[in-house]
Design goal:
The complex is a heterotrimer of chains A (about 300), B (about 375) and C (about 240). Chain A is of the alpha/beta class and about 300 residues long. In chain A, the strands form three sheets. Chain A has a six-stranded mixed beta sheet with strand order 6-7-8-3-9-10, with helices on both faces. In chain A, strands 2-1-4-5 form a four-stranded antiparallel beta sheet. Helices cover about 70% and strands about 5% of the residues of chain B. Chain B is built from 15 helices and four strands. In chain B, helix 3 links the parallel strand 1 and strand 2. Chain C contains nine helices and ten strands. Chain C is globular, with a radius of gyration of 18 Å. The chains are: A alpha/beta (about 300), B mainly alpha (about 375), C alpha/beta (about 240). At the A-C interface, helix 6, strand 12 and helix 11 of A face helix 5, helix 6, helix 7 and helix 9 of C.
């Protein structure tokens, strides 16, 4: 059956709070074992959508099937098939690691024996090696995130929703975290991730881009880039300081479409290839230029900002 | 430290606080609803008077004198007299809790009385119910005296009812007694609770960090925080005062200005206490619990509101000296019911002032200007 | 206009079981944007709070200079603006009410306030949201309101603790535009961030890890010195080096 093939299937989903439409008629589908990125500006409706798919909010209209279940048969069955790691830290700071896990397990009605073996297995899987008697409040931020993830995986869900799982963690932990997400996806779990770090969004199989409650783009990172940027993109890399005046000048140049700061570099959108060549010749040597592939951040800015009035 | 005190900054804190209160239905409901709740609760629901006490009368004498004597009970509405079942031991009514007391008049009562010998009546009371027993025995002494006079004075029946009324019609007095203490309870509980939450909330939501980074001074924060609640609690006090005067017909025998002075002193003290709690705990939940313990309990139990201080063990009697509600209770009742003047209230007023200085000093001292744990 | 610089020497601070700062020396000069770069728990917030006088160092010095003259902290306190990392605005007060509140706290005159307010609302593109309560602002707008409150008094020093954390890429860009405007007004800006790509945009960086400065200077020279292509790599290299 084709319908069973989707891990998440959303059709014309709308969620309103009072007269505010948080999610506006969106439709998409996620394959099992896929890493699905959910991007958008603050307040675009990402978290609302995730909460609905976890059965925490009731859709105003439209339908959603998660793990083959629709909400009409009750959300209880659904909850045993999804794991949710919230944006906000949801473990108890004044409990130890093992107490937190035991509590999470009791909510899922896991048997103590199952909890033991499952915790051991999970901690090994996420390479978590802190003493289980440690109070959670004494753990560093990144470790807490790992523990949250482990807690959300305790009942072996088919689909895991991660809402900004890597906010504020160090690059080292971030890399580790994404290695874990890939590992889980290879193990057949569907990973549904939101993030503001667009670099890490490159790791997703497919990305949905939300703006003001709607999905404005949905594709693989690569195809999103080529679709959003048919024109060439040039990176300017100022090797020494004092490039600002030049950039200000370029901003006013009619031959150049758009110039965006990117770290200490700049990305320049070329609308007129011949014109750009002329401009480039006048630039000082210290400004190194090279044609580049657009990054997801370029795509994000272009698509999200492009639609703003 | 208050060298740079600017009234405009304190005022801006106060205005912000008013906005919070206006937008927070819970605070408003607490401030205006709690006093009403307390008035209804203590004014109506809790009744310290005993009415319709079931008594069983076994009149084994059954003469005119004995019937006359018993009539005193039936005419009083505090007792409901029922004749004893002749086939039953009247005492069993106590065991089965059918009655709170049993009156037994042995045969010969009338004769003894007529002959001028001491006549005896046996009254058995259920000692398990301590409070009722005390009240009943109080009534009994009075009733007996009245009855005695009536009977022994023979045909010249005196209008004794007037005198007994004065002695026993405590119904209004007890209500007055409670309601005149309610102002103390309302201020004591409400002001501590409201202020305990306000500073704790700033800590809990993180806004204190931003506030402390501005040039605003602790004293300005304290002033600005307390002023709106001072106003809010004053409104509640006026409400309670009006209800007391109009609904319960309470007299006000003293000077209103003196009353206002007492209120302000006590109110500031309670606000300072709430502030101290808030400043120390920095958590709303903890602040709430602490303010109930340190606000509600002393006011209800140790202020003389219900339980007379004179009958407390010495330790608790001395303890009440450092409790503000006790002093304000003296002021409130003295002004409502007795009409005392400044001279009589000098001690409580002075004590309130002293405690005020201590509490304000502590609150200011403990007010943190940094985020050190 | 005064130009304030800050010099810290050997700052150490212990908070509970953690050594939040372990001997930090640095100096901050006006008209530059300093980035405190590091993951959660690196000591960024502790350093910010010490600079704002909200925490006191266990050892070490923190000196404030006004035009090269050492001055007491209390003298410069009112010209330092601070935006805490945690949410610290009042959710039930609107944008306009926040601005009025801070006007009163900083004793800003009505005329100056009107001008400044219009300027800030325009810069942050927040004009349409003046009546919205802070609790109903999106993450990016909330941070912008925090920045407006901090900038209302035209400070000489601006301390921003993770102003872009949890903010979407577009709002982050807008935020950076605002920061660049500040340093052009000769203001000293110190901000902390956990976004490694933002490190490259600062005039100077202090890379912090576990309470220590692991690298400092101009972003470019730091990267060259550490032989890293970007700051993300710098951290990953350190991790590998540590494991070896």
């Amino acid at each position: 059956m084709r319908k069973q093939a989707w891990a998440v299937e959303v059709k014309e989903l709308t969620i309103r709070f009072g007269d505010f439409t948080a999610v506006d008629n969106i439709s998409f589908a996620v394959k099992p074992g896929e890493i699905f990125g959910f991007l958008g500006a603050n307040g675009a409706g990402k978290t609302t959508t995730i909460r609905t798919l976890c059965g925490l909010l009731v859709p105003t209209s439209g339908s959603a099937r998660v793990a083959g279940l629709d909400f009409k048969s009750g959300v209880q069955a659904l909850k045993s098939k999804v794991g949710y790691m919230s944006q906000r830290f949801t473990l108890y700071n004044d409990l130890t690691i093992s107490e937190n896990m035991a509590f999470a397990a009791s909510l899922r009605k896991l048997k103590p024996g199952v909890l033991q073996s499952r915790t051991r297995e999970l901690f090994k899987f996420v390479e978590f090696d802190y003493p289980v008697k440690t109070l959670v409040k004494n753990l560093p931020g990144g470790i807490k995130q790992q523990l949250s993830l482990a807690a959300s995986l305790l009942h072996n869900p088919e689909i895991v929703f991660l809402d900004e799982p890597t906010a504020g963690v160090s690059p080292v932990i971030r890399n580790k975290f994404w290695a874990l997400i890939r590992k889980l996806a290879r193990a057949g779990k569907t990973m549904f991730v939101t993030t503001h770090y667009l670099q890490e969004a490159e790791e997703c199989n497919r990305i949905a881009l939300m703006r003001e409650g709607r999905i404005i783009a949905l594709d693989t990172p690569q195809r999103l880039k080529t679709q959003a940027f048919p024109e060439p993109l040039i990176e300017i890399n100022p090797e020494v300081g004092g490039s600002r005046q030049w950039v200000e000048k370029l901003k006013l140049d009619p031959r150049i479409g758009c110039i965006q700061p990117y770290g200490r570099r700049y990305h320049v959108l070329i609308q007129n290839q011949a014109g750009w060549k002329k401009v480039a010749r006048t630039m000082p040597k210290s400004l190194k230029t090279r044609p580049i592939q657009p990054s997801l951040e370029d795509v994000f800015i272009r698509l999200v900002e492009g639609g703003r009035t | 430290m208050s060298a740079g005190f600017r009234f405009s900054r304190a005022w801006s804190i106060a205005r912000k606080e008013v906005r919070h209160v206006r937008r927070d239905p819970f605070t408003l409901a607490t401030a205006l609803g709690l006093p009403i709740l307390l008035v209804v609760f203590f004014g109506y629901a809790i009744d310290f008077n005993v009415k319709d006490i079931h008594m069983i009368a076994a009149d084994r004498d059954n003469t005119r004198a004995s019937r006359e004597w018993l009539k005193n009970f039936t005419s009083s509405r505090f007792f409901k007299l029922e004749p004893a079942d002749p086939g039953q031991d009247p005492q069993s009514a106590l065991d089965t809790e059918q009655a709170k007391g049993v009156i037994i008049i042995e045969p010969g009562f009338g004769n003894d009385l007529g002959a001028g010998r001491p006549a005896e009546v046996q009254i058995l009371l259920d000692g398990a119910d301590n409070s009722t027993t005390g009240i009943i025995s109080g009534y009994l002494i009075g009733i007996q005296q009245a009855a005695w006079k009536k009977i022994s004075s023979g045909p010249r029946v005196q209008p004794l009812s007037l005198q007994t009324r004065f002695l026993f019609n405590q119904e209004q007095n007890s209500r007055w007694f409670v309601v005149s203490g309610l102002v103390v309870v309302v201020i004591g509980v409400l002001s501590i609770l409201l202020t305990a939450l306000t500073v704790a909330r700033e800590w809990e939501t993180g806004s204190m960090e931003l506030l402390l980074s501005t040039p605003v001074r602790p004293l300005e924060i304290i002033f600005g925080k307390l002023a709106p609640y001072l106003g809010l609690v004053l409104v509640s006090v006026v409400m309670v005062y009006l209800v007391a005067r109009i609904q319960f017909g309470l007299p006000f025998m003293g000077n209103h200005l003196l009353f206002l002075a007492g209120i302000l002193l006590f109110l500031c003290l309670c606000l300072a206490q709430g502030l101290l709690i808030s400043v120390i705990t920095r958590q709303q939940q903890l602040a709430m619990q602490l303010s109930f313990i340190s606000g509600l309990l002393p006011t209800l139990l140790l202020s003389g509101f219900i339980f007379p201080i004179e009958s407390m063990p010495p330790f608790f009697q001395y303890l009440t000296y450092i409790l503000a509600p006790r002093w304000f209770m003296v002021i409130s009742r003295g002004l409502f019911l007795k009409g005392v003047g400044l001279l009589e209230l000098a001690q409580p007023l002075f004590m309130l002032l002293l405690l005020n200085l201590i509490m304000m000093g502590l609150a200011l001292k403990r007010f943190k200007k940094d985020l050190e744990p | 206009m005064s130009q304030i610089s800050i010099q810290i020497k050997n700052l150490s601070k212990r908070l509970g079981p953690n050594q939040a700062l372990a001997g930090i020396t640095a100096s901050f000069e006006p008209a530059l944007l300093y980035g405190l770069i590091g993951p959660d728990g690196a000591g960024k917030t502790t350093l910010m709070r010490i600079l704002m006088g909200l925490l006191f160092p266990d050892s070490g010095e923190c000196a404030y200079l006004d035009n090269h003259q050492t001055v007491a902290f209390e003298r410069v306190r009112s010209s330092i603006a601070y935006m805490p990392q945690q949410q610290s605005l009042y959710p039930d007060l609107s944008v306009a009410e926040h601005l009025e509140f801070f006007r009163d706290l900083y004793l800003i005159s009505g005329k100056v306030f009107q001008k400044r307010r219009a300027e800030l609302l325009h810069l942050t593109r927040m004009e349409p949201f003046q009546d919205r309560p802070a609790g109903k602002l999106s993450g990016g707008m909330y941070k912008k309101l925090g920045l407006m409150c901090a900038l209302l008094q035209s400070p000489d020093v601006v301390l921003l603790d993770e102003p872009t954390n949890g903010v979407d890429p577009i709002s982050r860009r807008e935020f950076w535009d605002l920061l660049y405007r500040l340093i052009r007004q000769k203001i000293l800006v110190i901000m902390s961030t956990a976004y490694m790509d933002e490190a490259e945009r600062c005039s100077r960086v202090l890379v912090l890890d576990e309470g220590k400065i692991i690298a400092a200077g101009e972003p470019l020279s730091v990267l060259k010195q550490e032989k890293a292509g970007n700051f993300e790599e710098l951290f990953l290299q350190r991790q590998k080096a540590g494991r070896r």
